[in-house]
Amino acid sequence: MTNGKIHGERPTAWAFVFGTPIRYALGVRFMEALHAFRVGDNIPDILLLMQHLPVVTLGRRARDQHLRIGAAELASRGIELQVACRGGDVTYHGPGQWVLYPIFRLGHATDVAHSYLWMLEEIAIRAAAEFGVAAFRRPGMSGAWTAAGKIAAIGFYIRRWVTMHGMSFNVSPDLSGFETIVPCGLVGERVASLATILGGRVPSMEAVGKSLLAHAGNVLRREMHLYGAPAEMPPDLGRIWLATANDSAGLPVRCTSAG
Amino acid sequence: MNIPRDFRFTSSHEWVRIRNNIATVGITDYAQNQLSDLTFIELPAVDDEVSASDEVAVVESVKAASDVYAPVSGRVVEINTRVVEQPDIVNRDPYGEGWLFKIEMSHPEEIDDLMDADQYEESLPEEE
């Protein structure tokens, strides 16, 4: 298709990088608040990069049978159980794993025509390569895979054509968290991290976070402006963060979509 | 990208084909491609009254979920039960067999707010 569109034009996106692990419910509530602002065109595209405190999340079509242990036993291991309004099945998040939540409006003339799923996979594959790990796609299986198992898992939700949720990337999480579930409902598939593959040469969370941000900017074709979060976020959004943290972090997440 | 010339389009990537006072609605080739292989579709009920831009359906793939919006106001008069049973029809033929629902329009002038094929094509990312 040649219709005279400008190449190389990059809209601005704000990247908020959280320094300490965040409870899942708080992260999601904040993401949902930002999503509403983005739908209303009150803010540019946002990319949240954070780690969660240990949590098992069930996607919209997730089945309880993919939990190997119940909520009480999860709790005794210090792992929360939450529902997630995203596509995909069950997964685990915890410290040592980056989650990447792009709150991006899709379908603009300035965007890349690749599917959003492809782009998330591409970010993970390029970041892994930067640290010497060969990651790849597997036909019919989303995410980024290595010879040692799945290193990046994907589940997202598009509402009003603005994205929510996204991708997790394992740097050095306690992989025993994944043993409490059948990750993504895939029986017999292994989970890998940079640490299991690289051993003692594993890069820092900070280095991997920077790599994910840089590749996200290139793949999603956005000019990224980085903010340390929550401290350096624009004041209006900082206030929303504080209100969300005071208000609702302990509440369960609910799906508010149609259906 | 495949865009039928005589359809109308929304910025949320629904298409509309008008015959008399009935609007047939589906999701565009761009939308099905973004979501990849669909595995689940939830449609409105026949006789539902809907307003333009209401969330009326949900389409899901293995890894993604997205809402579908009513492009025009009116009453749902028919739904495509085949795509509920076989969601991949929407991937294969989004503008034909993969239609989702039909609305008997209560405000036909709303069609004027929709994009034509040229405008929709211009709004989309360029293929590489």
Tell me briefly what this model is.
The complex is a heterodimer of chains A (259) and B (128). By secondary structure, chain A is of the alpha/beta class.
SSE order of chain A: EHEEHEEEHEEEEHHEH
Uncertain segments of chain B: none
Instruction: Give the CATH class of the domain at 12-113 and 152-187 and 221-248 in chain A.
Output: Alpha Beta
Q: Taking Cα atoms only, what radius of gyration of chain B do you get, to the nearest Å? A: 13 Å
The domain tally of chain B reads 1
The CA-CA distance between the termini of chain A, in Å, is: 36 Å
Strand order of the largest sheet of chain B: 1-2-3-9-8-5
Helical fraction of chain B equals: 10-25%
Return the CATH architecture of chain B.
Beta Barrel
Blueprint (SSEs and pairs):
The complex is a heterodimer of chains A (259) and B (128).
Chain A: E1 12-18, H1 24-39, E2 45-50, E3 55-58, H2 71-76, E4 80-83, E5 90-93, E6 97-103, H3 116-130, E7 136-138, E8 141-146, E9 149-159, E10 162-170, H4 194-198, H5 205-219, E11 223-229, H6 235-248
Parallel strand pairs in A: 1-2, 1-11, 3-4
Antiparallel strand pairs in A: 2-6, 3-5, 6-10, 7-8, 8-9, 9-10
Chain B: E1 8-9, E2 14-19, E3 22-27, H1 29-35, E4 38-42, E5 49-50, E6 55-61, E7 64-69, E8 74-79, H2 81-85, H3 88-92, E9 101-105, H4 117-123
Antiparallel strand pairs in B: 1-2, 2-3, 3-9, 4-6, 5-8, 6-7, 8-9
Describe the structure.
The complex is a heterodimer of chains A (259) and B (128). Chain A is an alpha/beta fold and 259 residues long. Chain A has a domain of 166 residues: Bira Bifunctional Protein, Domain 2 (BirA Bifunctional Protein, domain 2), CATH 3.30.930. Chain A is 27% helix and 26% strand. Chain A has an 8-stranded mixed β-sheet, with helices on both faces. Chain B has a single domain, classed as Beta Barrel (OB fold (Dihydrolipoamide Acetyltransferase, E2P)), CATH 2.40.50. In chain B, the strands form 2 sheets. Chain B has a 6-stranded antiparallel β-sheet with strand order 1-2-3-9-8-5. Chain B has a 3-stranded antiparallel β-sheet with strand order 4-6-7. Chain B is globular, with a radius of gyration of 13 Å. Chain B starts with 7 loop residues before the first strand and ends in a 5-residue tail after the last helix. Classes of the chains: A alpha/beta (259), B alpha+beta (128).
